[in-house]
Write a structure and sequence with these properties.
Blueprint: H1 3-154, H2 158-192, E1 197-201, E2 205-211, H3 232-247, E3 253-257, E4 264-275, E5 278-288, E6 294-303, E7 309-312
Parallel strand pairs: 2-7
Antiparallel strand pairs: 1-2, 3-4, 4-5, 5-6, 6-7
């Protein structure tokens, strides 16, 4: 053994002795400290010893409960196999689901992806149409703004319009009075005219003498086979229908019915024509008796030089 090795061993030995001395010192310190702790520990032991009887009493009470607890633990242990069996079955189901999941994914994912692609296409279409929709909304907004402006312009005129409406409402009774007077005058003229009258609408309300016949009965003469079934009142109603038909600008018809005799009829304008420079109209007169017998006559009437309708052969 050479000298360097001896020196190293000596150093290690010195360090070991120094450590051993330190350990002895620490042990002595610990013993001293333990000596200071032992009396309180003994006191604590005495206190514990004093509590042991009470602890034993409590332990005795617990000892009576322990059999019940052991019985419950035994019952729980008996249920453990069933629980484990259920766990095994659940595990088997989970394994089966894990096997089915790939199949479900393979079967359903393509359809889901196709739907997603379709939705994406619809989204792209909506995005493509979005500028047009926004433009339409802008146009609508502009129209709404213009409408609001027009309403704002019209609103100040509403009081004036309401005032004019009120004025017109106030004048309406006067118009009704004038209309009733006109009707009364027309009725009087009709009753007083031996030749008859007709009324019509031609550039306003126009009245002119109607000279179709001197008297209603002469209008039909012997041509009406069922003349005996009709009264003068029936003939008067027929004559009034003829006046109405001749007074209209266009070809038309007019029906009449007598509620007392139950007779009825209809006058129809057939055609307009010119005869010797005069405007003429052919009319058809239908008569129906209360028992359903029908008869039809035709008459021609032309406007004479006085602007009056008169019967022509």
């Amino acid at each position: 053994m050479n000298k360097p090795q001896k020196t190293e061993r000596s150093t290690i030995l010195s360090i070991a002795l120094l450590a051993l001395a330190g350990a002895i010192v620490y042990l002595a310190y610990a013993l001293i400290k333990v000596a200071t702790i032992v009396p309180p520990a003994l006191t604590r032991v005495d206190q514990v010893n004093q509590q042991i009887p009470a602890i034993l009493e409590v332990a005795q009470e617990y000892r009576t409960v322990v059999p019940d607890i052991l019985d419950e633990m035994s019952a729980v242990r008996q249920q453990i196999p069933d629980i484990l069996a259920r766990v095994d079955r659940l595990q088997m189901q989970v394994d089966a689901l894990q096997q089915d999941i790939p199949l479900l994914i393979d079967n359903n994912v393509p359809a889901i992806l196709a739907r997603v692609d379709k939705m994406q296409l619809q989204i792209e279409q909506v995005q493509a149409e979005l500028p047009k929709i926004l433009s339409t909304m802008d146009s609508t907004t502009q129209v709404i703004a213009e409408t609001n402006q027009q309403i704002a312009n019209i609103t100040p005129l509403i009081p004036q319009i309401l005032q004019e409406v009120a004025t017109v409402r106030g004048e309406i009774p006067g118009y009704f009075d004038r209309a009733e007077g006109l009707v009364a005058d027309t009725r009087d003229v009709t009753e007083e005219a031996g030749k008859g009258m007709f009324t019509g609408l031609l550039k306003g309300i126009v009245s002119a003498p109607f000279e179709l016949l001197r008297a209603p009965a002469n209008m039909f003469g012997d041509d009406l086979k069922n003349k005996r079934f009709f009264t003068n009142e029936d003939f008067e109603l027929s004559l009034n229908s003829a006046k109405y038909v001749l007074s209209q600008r266009e070809l038309t018809s007019n029906s009449w019915r007598n509620p007392e005799t139950k007779n009825e009829g209809k006058v129809t304008a057939i055609e307009d024509y010119q005869f010797k420079g005069r405007h003429c109209r052919k009319i058809s007169l239908m008569f129906v008796t209360a028992n359903g017998k029908k008869e039809e006559l035709q008459r021609d009437a032309c406007i004479n030089e006085n602007g009056q309708w008169e019967q022509v052969d």
